[in-house]
Amino acid sequence: MGDLRTLRTYTLLKKALLELLSKQSFDSIKVNDICNVAMIHRTTFYTHFSDKYELLDYVIKSLEEDLLSGFDVTQYSSSRDFYKGLIDNLLEFLGANKVFFKNILNNNYNSGIITVFHDSAIKHILELIEKEGSNNRKNRVPPVVVSEFYAGAVTSTILWWLKTNSNISEKDLCNYIVSLIFGD
Question: Which of 4, 82, 139, 180 could join 76 in a cystine, given CB atoms 3.0 to 4.6 angstroms apart?
Answer without folding.
Answer: 82
